[in-house]
Amino acid sequence: MEMLLFCVWALLALNPGPGATEEIFEVSVWPDQALVKLGQSLMINCSTTCPDPGPSGIETYLKKTQVDKGPQWKEFLLEDVTENSVLQCFFSCAGIQKDTSLDITVYQPPEQVILELQPAWVAMDEAFTVKCHVPSVAPLENLTLTLLQGNQELHRKDFMNLAVASQRAEITINVKAQREDDRCNFSCRAELDLSSHGGGLFHSSSAIKVLRIFEFSQSPQIWVSSLLEIGMAEAVSCELARVFPAREVMFHMFLGDQELSLFVSWKGDTAWANATVRAMETGDQELSCLVSLGPMEQKTREPVHVYNKPRLEESDCPGNQTWVKGTEQLLACVPKGNPTPTLVCTWNGVIFNFEVPRKATQNHTGTYCCTASNQLGSVSKDIAVIVRGLDEGISSTIFVIIIVALGVGVITIALYLNYRPCKIERRKLPYRQKEKNKEEESQFAVQQAEKCNAHNC
Ligand SMILES: *[C@@H]1O[C@H](CO)[C@@H](O)[C@H](O)[C@H]1NC(C)=O
Ligand SMILES: *[C@@H]1O[C@H](CO)[C@@H](O)[C@H](O)[C@H]1NC(C)=O
Ligand SMILES: *[C@@H]1O[C@H](CO)[C@@H](O)[C@H](O)[C@H]1NC(C)=O
Ligand SMILES: *[C@@H]1O[C@H](CO)[C@@H](O)[C@H](O)[C@H]1NC(C)=O
Ligand SMILES: *[C@@H]1O[C@H](CO)[C@@H](O)[C@H](O)[C@H]1NC(C)=O
Ligand SMILES: *[C@@H]1O[C@H](CO)[C@@H](O)[C@H](O)[C@H]1NC(C)=O
């Protein structure tokens, strides 16, 4: 009896009295920290220590399905978890409800890491921008972005202390371009560290971007002789100084529309292109040189004049010329060429003014030396001049005929003159004189004619 009383007392003493059960029973949830990859599902075990629990369940806006249960627990499947949320697990025990909450953290490992270099080609001493961004990553506060130049860390950024709403997984820096940076590999590394939540360490890197740096401050210079000779191969060149990287400079050269084939070389900070031009038309033309490097392009134009060397052709300057004695003559010689050549002729070592017509005399016969010159050079030619009298060659026959004809004409006139005004005197002449030869007769006639004239008849 005493023993029973003691037990009752002990029970009363241990129990805090009415309402004590609510202090005693516990509600717990497993897991106690939930890290779910975006879009994945999660199993929840909600349990209690209440020996005979009343109504129970979980409160969440996520899609939930009860998959199993025991007397003191319930298991749920949560599907398509896309956002961070807080879940409540509750049990009631003897009319008293208790709950416990679970933070669900959604994570998204960095998969795509995008690096941009702007501009792709940057002028020396100008600033360029390196920008890295991760379109889809969570949670941001556990992300670290690192910009790398080669293997060297350029800049590092974490997102722990900034207001989440204002953030994007992005990092941008500006750098001044140095020559040494040319062709440097830039990359960006994203790290998501979830190890303290029982997750892992996720990392991903961007593709490598190569930075190009250039210097291009001058215009190309064309080297060409201002006199090009038609049809002749002439060396020309186009030079670009103070350029970097010189060996990547591209050249195009044109004479008018015709593109020239080039031989490109470089040394130090100078690049040049050599070509051979062959102009096929005389006159003013344009030689141009187009130079490009990365985003830069420059064109230089140079006027050229295409000339023709002087020529003394047989058609315009015959090597054999025949002059007729006593006639007005010019030395026939017209030079060809562009610009029009000047002509100088010498005769017996003396300059001969070939532009003045002169009366051909025997002593004009000889060899004349004519020289035509222009800016491109000069050419000489010997011209043999023969001065012929009228009795020479074929013309002498004609000359004889003309002389005979003239002679006959003169005699005829003489006879006529002798006959008409002096017939009386003539009739008085003795008959026998008629037998004298013609020469004597004409001589006589002339004498008579002279007499006649003397007598004013
Ligand atoms: C849920 O949790 C309770 C209490 O820890 C445990 O007894 C039970 O076996 C769990 N259920 C499952 C399906 O793991
Ligand atoms: C850049 O990266 C390429 C390919 O990964 C490598 O071959 C090259 O050597 C790197 N250049 C520099 C300057 O590190
Ligand atoms: C993620 O970031 C939060 C906030 O800075 C921090 O409390 C937590 O420990 C971090 N988790 C990991 C795994 O670093
Ligand atoms: C190119 O032309 C320049 C100037 O005309 C000359 O000095 C140089 O030797 C040439 N180079 C080559 C490779 O032909
Ligand atoms: C000029 O005449 C000479 C002699 O007749 C001849 O040998 C020469 O070939 C001629 N020259 C020309 C250029 O016709
Ligand atoms: C040609 O010769 C004559 C005399 O023989 C001379 O009087 C004349 O000056 C000469 N003419 C030339 C052009 O030499």
Automatic annotation (TrEMBL):
Residue ranges occupied by any Ig-like domain in the UniProt entry: 310-384
UniProt family annotation: Belongs to the immunoglobulin superfamily. ICAM family.
Membrane topology, from the record: Single-pass type I membrane protein
Molecular-function annotations in GO: integrin binding
Main location: membrane
Gene Ontology process terms (BP): cellular response to oxygen-containing compound; immune effector process; immune response; leukocyte cell-cell adhesion; leukocyte migration
One Pfam short name: ICAM_N
Lineage: Eukaryota, Metazoa, Chordata, Craniata, Vertebrata
Keywords: Cell adhesion, Disulfide bond, Glycoprotein, Immunoglobulin domain, Membrane, Repeat, Signal, Transmembrane, Transmembrane helix
Record organism: Panthera pardus
Claim: Kinase is one of the keywords in the record: no
SMART domains reported for this sequence: IG
UniProt subcellular location: Membrane
Signal peptide: 1-21
One GO location term (cellular component): plasma membrane
Full protein name: Intercellular adhesion molecule 2 isoform X2
Stored InterPro entries: ICAM1_3_5_D2, ICAM_N, ICAM_VCAM, ICAM_VCAM_N, Ig-like_dom, Ig-like_dom_sf, Ig-like_fold, Ig_sub
Transmembrane segments: 398-419
